[in-house]
Design brief:
This protein is mainly alpha-helical and about 80 residues long. About 65% of the residues lie in helices and about 0% in strands. The chain folds into two domains: about 1-35; about 35-84. It has helices spanning about 15-30, 45-84.
C-alpha cells in the first residue's frame, strides 16, 4: 500500500508558501515589531501592576480550565451512558 505524503513547498499551496515566506521576512527585517506589548510595563501604580498580573494569571489558566472541564464532562457522559 503506498504511503500518503503531504505536498511539498511550491507544489500544492503556493499562496500559503508566499504568506509564510512574507511573514518570515517581516520578522527578520523588523525584529522590534515582535517585542511584547507596551502595556506590560506601563503600570503607573501598584494597583495597576497587580491588576495586570491577576488578569495575566486568569488568562493563562482559563484555557486549561476549559479543556479540563470539557474532558471531565465528556468522561462523565461516557460513564453515564455505559452504565445504563
Amino acid at each position: 500500500m503506498p504511503q500518503a505524503t503531504l505536498p511539498g513547498p511550491g507544489r500544492a499551496y503556493p499562496a500559503r508558501d508566499l504568506v509564510v515566506r512574507g511573514v518570515t521576512a517581516l520578522v527578520l527585517c523588523f525584529p522590534s515589531a515582535a517585542w511584547a506589548c507596551p502595556m506590560c510595563f506601563s503600570a503607573k501604580n501598584e494597583a495597576g501592576r497587580i491588576a495586570y498580573l491577576a488578569t495575566t494569571g486568569v488568562l493563562t489558566f482559563l484555557p486549561l480550565i476549559v479543556i479540563g472541564s470539557t474532558i471531565l464532562l465528556v468522561k462523565r457522559h461516557i460513564d453515564k451512558n455505559t452504565a445504563a
